[in-house]
């Protein structure tokens, strides 16, 4: 959300004491965990906690992100952002990392621990995917958050349970956290390509622009708490571990339809690690393996380049680092290779302590009876491809399971312009709110009926009063008559227009994507496509797509007549390709009514 500098940020001004009290009440109502019932009496009172969450002297300012998303931010006296909202008049207050760095008695947000180091695409604005989530084998550490809920991201540099905050996001997965985890474990169980989709939208993260404008406070390290509402209860209660506790966990996991998921035990023994490495070796040597070595090959290269990537993907990510030769029963790679040679799986050559694997017996019963599985390398490759696709699709709209985009929701919005505020107030329209396009005509009709300004003999004409006359720019409005369509046209021209594309509000009227077939010298025709930037279409990718669809050239050039500062571009495609281009744009989710063909001329 804040991967780039803000497009606009107003000066922050102090809020009134009454507004501060209302903000404290709203925050405590939205995050009741801050005052968790049953805490010790020596904890902070509601008044004391309010001073921490919303300190005295708090200031408020509006902002607009580089993507055109508007919002409000609340700063402390030092200028650190503490709370933010997205959208006009939103009452959903979202804490920032600066707020989470404060000494709070309880975490205000449910916490999701993700793997360290964090996936690099997160730092470039990409969403979070389930494979980055830790504790899939310990569901009592994963909060049960519904779709649309706000969560905090935390990491541990040692990949243990001592964590620190790293970011804040919104759960966008269907079915919330529970649904996303179920789909993830179903995929691991069945080895099928289940479309998991996006898990969380990243609202802010450490080192983004929001972090840069703060004082970069130290984010404390704390033990990962067990959430009050987790995906499964913890394996033991305060009375100590018992078989009934373990049975209860197993029953709850079974209800989630993941009890039969192949996974490593919570604490892998040396025997377990040896078994998993043996499976990885059989996967490597199998003729059906997607990644097989060429012999002869040094044992160290076979181990690092093939065996480790071919470990089963159902090993939880927080335990994969344990499945290595040093923690197995063999301890040394040479000992394992010699044992595998004695079993007849491979033939080796020992030269001054250096083991070289000469060949393998593909007819060995262990290899013949081996059933292939999804490997860590394959799982990582799928996650990387999906992350790359989603990163490229940020801001472009949702994608269905079949790869075809859902149609973008495009809505024109307006608010009264400065020259006709008094008329719109008389018509009952709030001067600060954004209204759908159809409401403009409705407001005018209601005003005309209420003031009895419709011409009795011809309803296509209206009489102008002082307010309406000033709004449409009439010099002497009293007694004048004007066509209703002309009044509507002038009113539309006098308001301030914005547009909502896929839920993102941008200022200014919406211009459609235009296509013009033009004739160049030599009687060659080309199709010029402009206006793609407004709908978030990647121009370079779309040009490459058109080269394939049209089986011809498609070049990118600066938009003729536009300012270089705007960095607007157009695509010139060989031949008359209006139909093909229209279908390609509709496939991307662009509504057909926003794709126009205009008259072309000769291009020299």
UniProtKB/TrEMBL annotation:
Q: Which domain of life is it from?
A: Eukaryota
Question: InterPro entries in the record, alphabetically?
Answer: EIF2D, eIF2D_SUI1, Pre-PUA, SUI1, SUI1_dom_sf, SWIB_MDM2_dom_sf, WH_eIF2D
Q: Supply the PANTHER family for this chain.
A: EUKARYOTIC TRANSLATION INITIATION FACTOR 2D
Ranges for domain SUI1 come to: 511-591
Q: One Pfam family this chain carries?
A: Pre-PUA
What is this protein identified as?
SUI1 domain-containing protein
Where is each Pre-PUA domain found?
10-100
A single GO molecular-function term is: translation initiation factor activity
Q: Which SUPFAM superfamilies match?
A: eIF1-like, SWIB/MDM2 domain
Q: Which GO terms describe its biological process?
A: formation of translation preinitiation complex
User: Segment Disordered: which positions?
Assistant: 224-247
eIF2D winged helix domain segment(s)? 275-359
Q: Which residues form the signal peptide?
A: none
User: Compositional bias (Pro residues) at which positions?
Assistant: 224-236
Q: Which organism is it from?
A: Papiliotrema laurentii
Q: Which CDD domains match?
A: eIF2D_C
């Amino acid at each position: 959300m804040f991967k780039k500098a803000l497009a606009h940020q107003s000066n922050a001004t102090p809020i009134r004491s009454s507004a501060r009290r209302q903000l404290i009440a709203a925050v405590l109502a939205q995050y009741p965990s801050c005052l968790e019932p049953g805490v010790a009496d020596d904890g902070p009172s509601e008044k004391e906690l309010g001073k921490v969450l919303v300190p005295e002297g708090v200031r408020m300012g509006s902002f607009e992100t580089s993507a055109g998303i508007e919002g409000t931010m609340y700063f402390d006296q030092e200028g650190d952002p503490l709370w933010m909202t997205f959208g006009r008049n939103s009452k959903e207050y979202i804490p920032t990392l600066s707020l989470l760095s404060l000494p709070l008695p309880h975490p205000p947000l449910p916490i999701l621990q993700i793997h360290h180091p964090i996936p690099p695409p997160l730092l470039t604005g990409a969403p979070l995917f389930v494979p980055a989530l830790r504790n899939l084998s310990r569901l009592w550490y994963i909060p049960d958050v519904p779709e649309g809920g706000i969560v905090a991201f935390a990491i541990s540099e040692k990949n243990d349970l001592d964590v620190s905050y790293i970011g804040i996001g919104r759960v966008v997965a269907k079915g919330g956290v529970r649904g996303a985890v179920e789909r993830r474990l179903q995929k691991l169980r069945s080895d099928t390509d289940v479309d998991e989709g996006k898990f969380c939208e990243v609202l802010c993260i450490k080192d983004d622009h929001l972090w840069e404008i703060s004082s970069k406070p130290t984010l404390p390290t704390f033990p990962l708490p067990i959430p009050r509402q987790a995906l499964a209860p913890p394996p033991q209660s305060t009375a100590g571990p018992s078989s009934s506790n373990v049975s209860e966990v197993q029953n709850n996991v079974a209800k989630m339809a993941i009890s039969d998921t192949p996974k490593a035990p919570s604490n892998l023994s040396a025997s377990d690690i040896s078994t998993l490495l043996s499976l990885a070796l059989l996967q490597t040597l199998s003729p059906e393996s997607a990644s097989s070595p060429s012999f002869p090959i040094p044992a160290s290269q076979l181990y690092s380049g093939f065996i480790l990537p071919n470990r089963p993907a159902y090993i939880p990510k927080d335990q994969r680092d344990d499945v290595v030769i040093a923690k197995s029963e063999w301890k040394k790679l040479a000992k394992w290779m010699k044992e595998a040679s004695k079993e007849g799986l491979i033939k080796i050559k020992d030269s001054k302590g250096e083991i070289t694997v000469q060949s393998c017996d593909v007819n060995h019963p262990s290899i013949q009876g081996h059933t292939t599985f999804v490997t860590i390398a394959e799982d990582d490759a799928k996650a990387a491809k999906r992350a790359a696709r989603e990163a490229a699709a940020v801001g472009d709209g949702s994608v269905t399971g079949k790869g075809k985009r859902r149609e973008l929701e495009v809505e024109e919005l307006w608010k009264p312009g400065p020259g006709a505020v008094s008329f719109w107030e008389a018509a009952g329209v709030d001067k600060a709110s954004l209204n759908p396009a159809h409401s403009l005509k409705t407001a005018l009709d209601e005003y005309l009926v209420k003031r009895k300004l419709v011409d009795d003999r011809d309803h296509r004409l209206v009489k102008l009063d002082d307010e309406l006359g000033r709004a449409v720019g009439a010099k002497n409005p009293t007694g004048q008559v004007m066509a209703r369509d002309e009044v509507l046209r002038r009113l539309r021209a006098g308001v301030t227009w914005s547009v909502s594309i896929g839920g993102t509000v941008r200022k200014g009227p919406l211009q459609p994507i235009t296509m013009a077939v033009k004739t160049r010298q030599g009687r060659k025709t080309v199709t010029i496509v402009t206006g793609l930037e407004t709908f978030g279409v990647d121009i370079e990718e779309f040009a490459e797509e058109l080269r394939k669809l049209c089986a011809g050239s498609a070049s990118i050039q600066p938009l003729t007549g536009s300012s270089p500062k705007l960095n607007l571009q157009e695509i010139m495609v060989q031949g008359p390709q209006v139909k093909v281009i229209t279908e390609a744009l509709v496939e991307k989710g662009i509504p057909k009514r926003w794709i126009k063909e205009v008259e072309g001329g000769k291009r020299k």
